[in-house]
Design a protein that fits this description.
The structure holds two protein chains of two kinds.
Chain A: H1 16-19, H2 22-38, H3 42-59, H4 63-69, H5 74-87, E1 93-97, E2 100-103, H6 104-129, H7 134-145, H8 155-185, H9 195-226, H10 245-267
Antiparallel strand pairs in A: 1-2
Helix pairs in contact in A: 2-6, 2-7, 2-10, 3-6, 3-10, 5-6, 7-8, 8-9
Chain B: E1 3-12, E2 27-35, E3 39-43, H1 50-57, E4 65-70, E5 73-75, H2 81-90, E6 91-94, H3 107-117, H4 122-135, H5 151-163, E7 169-173, H6 181-198, E8 201-205, H7 209-212, E9 217-222, E10 225-230, H8 232-236, H9 239-244, H10 251-263, H11 274-289
Parallel strand pairs in B: 3-8, 3-9, 6-7, 7-8
Antiparallel strand pairs in B: 1-2, 1-4, 4-5, 9-10
Classes of the chains: A mainly alpha, B alpha/beta.
The structure holds adenosine-5'-triphosphate and magnesium ion.
Residues 14, 26, 44, 46-52 of chain B line the site of adenosine-5'-triphosphate (ATP).
């Protein structure tokens, strides 16, 4: 069950997006996220949705995988939709029964916010997490944060910690599965009782998990020492990356997408979302 | 050949300030030479100090007293950093749990980790990584995620990661213990290949006696001391001493012992090889029939 989480899952490949410099890619995904938040009317939303679908096609990530990654979002989507449909103060009332008022604007708003969340997910996963190995992401972050080194921040250590955390997510998930099965075999019950008793039932899972995490950490530290790790000083990289002209062209493409959104917001007629819950 | 690693009267405690009695040290006066290009197996029960001994050899632990000499360089007290990294680069180490020694998520990035730390130039790292992956037969997995590999494959990636540092000696600390028979076979084949084709010095710590039968030399560690040291047949024929050290006995040796003691059969002692044992036994039984 825990295995379904596709957090930080990387699909190796050779698309234009895969080959983009990770540091530039992080900038591009920030630009993209800003563009998604800027969307205000149906046309700009339609445009950004088309842009994310297009990016997915370019990245050659199977659409099925992208859809699957949305599974954990279903609940959030349902909640925001529910809140917007029932509580949005619109003008065109469709249903009015006691205290429930469903308005056309409410439904539209719910729809647009759902699209916003979906676009955010598609965009960031296709541009960044699905097409960039975690090590490249941390490498990108390390390079983007380089200027902080002048303030005395050890950027390398920070990036290393992130890389190791990412590396250990699958290991710890496996460990959790194993502990849960072991506790179940001894008669532990995780699925019944009220919230408090269920939370209590998790304690015998968390303690061995912490112990395991510590053991992993100690072993890993020794293994890293054996491989001559001594911080960022004097360290080289197998793939020393420098952004190429092509990377900036792609970044430019995302900036243009953002600009298009602003123009469409301004000139296209249509329904504008209000500032309501969710995203 | 000359010794690649030499330990002289080596005493070690993780906490020498508080452990006053040297009898409570983890390693107690070990003197040992590991010949260059040899295949040495180290046996011993849990907690006897095998892993600690291994960590001394690549300076993850520094001797409390006594000296370690690796490839002609002698280390006695706190060595300087450069020496430490030079020696760790020469004496690589592969551990038991494959999950706790891979540092990154992608196979080739992990193999590159060691040489990156050593400050090797990028193009050279690329070459070393490709060569190391080819040696362990994992080339086609170069871009795979480490978390998707089987235990045996993870261990081979870990070996490649050590090979990329171009060590002259590799210590395997129970590296086959957590694997299924197939993974174990693949890893053992890789280890044997490194020894026979690349002439590397191999120190293999194991609980599995069958893996020690083909070694050049077997060392049994007991309670921080070297208890037995010799060729496999010299060591494995000493049934009583092995039991004293908390170890089992090879099945052939045990069978031969029982046949001699209980049935009064006249069989040679010190048999460690299954096939050879079977041959002797079958000819003895044929003779008995006639
Ligand atoms: N980092 C450490 N700090 C303190 N004591 C330790 C440390 N590592 C090991 N020890 C102790 O040193 C002794 C020898 O441990 P070591 O790991 O060398 O044994 P081993 O022969 O490798 O055993 P095993 O077969 O279980 O791997 C044990 O009593 C152990 O508790
Ligand atoms: Mg050990």
């Amino acid at each position: 069950m825990l295995r379904d989480i596709t957090l930080g899952q990387y699909f190796p490949g050779d698309s234009v997006i895969h080959r983009m410099d990770p540091a530039v890619k992080i900038l591009a995904s920030v630009v993209y996220m800003v563009a998604v938040f800027l969307c205000r009317n149906i046309w700009s939303f339609a445009f950004i949705l088309a842009a994310s679908v297009f990016s997915t096609a370019v990245s050659k990530i199977p659409f099925r995988a992208v859809l699957k990654s949305m599974k954990p979002l279903v609940i959030i989507l349902l909640i925001t939709t529910f809140i917007n449909v029932f509580f949005y103060e619109g003008e065109t009332v469709l249903v009015s029964w006691h205290f429930i008022h469903i308005t056309l604007e409410g439904i539209l708003n719910a729809l647009l916010i759902a699209v916003r969340i979906i676009c955010l997910l598609i965009g960031t996963s296709v541009i960044l997490t699905y097409t960039t190995s975690p090590i490249d992401i941390t490498d990108g972050i390390e390079r983007l944060l380089k200027p902080l080194a002048m303030l005395g921040v050890d950027v390398h250590i920070f990036a290393m910690m992130m890389a190791i955390a990412l590396r250990f997510i699958p290991t710890l998930i496996e460990e959790t599965d194993r502990i849960i099965s072991a506790q179940k075999a001894r008669g532990a019950d995780f699925d019944s009782g009220n919230l408090v008793s269920r939370a209590k039932a998790l304690i015998p899972v968390l303690i061995p998990l912490f112990a395991a995490a510590l053991r992993h950490a100690l072993d890993l530290a020794t293994a890293m020492e054996c491989r001559c790790y001594h911080g960022g000083e004097g360290r080289t990289k197998m793939n020393e990356r420098k952004p190429k002209a092509g990377d900036f062209v792609l970044l430019g493409a995302f900036v243009i997408i953002g600009a298009c959104v602003i123009i469409i917001n301004k000139y296209a007629p249509g329904f504008n979302t209000g500032s309501v819950t969710g995203a | 050949m000359a010794d690649f690693i030499t330990l002289k009267d080596l005493w070690f405690s993780y906490d020498p300030e508080n452990v006053k009695d040297r009898e409570n040290y983890i390693l107690k006066g070990i003197s040992l030479g590991i010949e260059e290009g040899s295949f040495v197996c180290v046996l011993g029960h849990n907690g006897s100090g095998k892993s600690t001994l291994a960590k001394i050899m690549n300076l993850v632990c520094t001797p409390t007293s006594g000296s370690v000499t690796v490839d002609g360089r002698t280390i006695t007290e706190e060595p300087d950093e450069d020496t430490v990294f030079e020696i760790r680069g020469k004496v690589g180490m592969v551990f038991q749990n494959p999950d706790n020694q891979l540092v990154t998520t992608i196979v080739e990035d992990d193999v590159a980790f060691g040489p990156e730390n050593l400050g090797v130039p990028s193009e050279e790292i690329r070459k070393r990584v490709d060569a190391a992956l080819a040696t362990v037969g994992m080339t086609e997995y170069a871009k795979h995620s480490t978390s998707m590999l089987s235990g045996g494959q993870k261990q081979r990636v870990a070996i490649a990661g050590v090979l990329a540092m171009q060590p002259r000696c590799i210590i395997f600390d129970e590296s086959t213990a957590m694997l299924d028979p197939q993974g174990r076979r693949a890893v053992m084949d890789t280890i044997e290949k490194l020894h026979s084709e690349k002439g590397m010095t191999i120190i293999h710590i194991t609980h599995n006696m069958d893996e020690a039968v083909n070694a050049d030399r077997v060392i049994v560690v007991n309670d921080g001391r070297i208890f037995l040291d010799g060729t496999p047949s010299e060591v494995f024929s000493q049934e009583k001493k092995l039991r004293e050290a908390g170890l089992g006995v090879l099945q052939v040796t045990e069978l031969f012992g029982m046949l001699t003691r209980e049935l009064g059969m006249k069989l040679p002692g010190g048999i460690t090889d299954n096939r050879k044992g079977a041959e002797i036994l079958s000819s003895a039984l044929k003779n008995g029939k006639n």
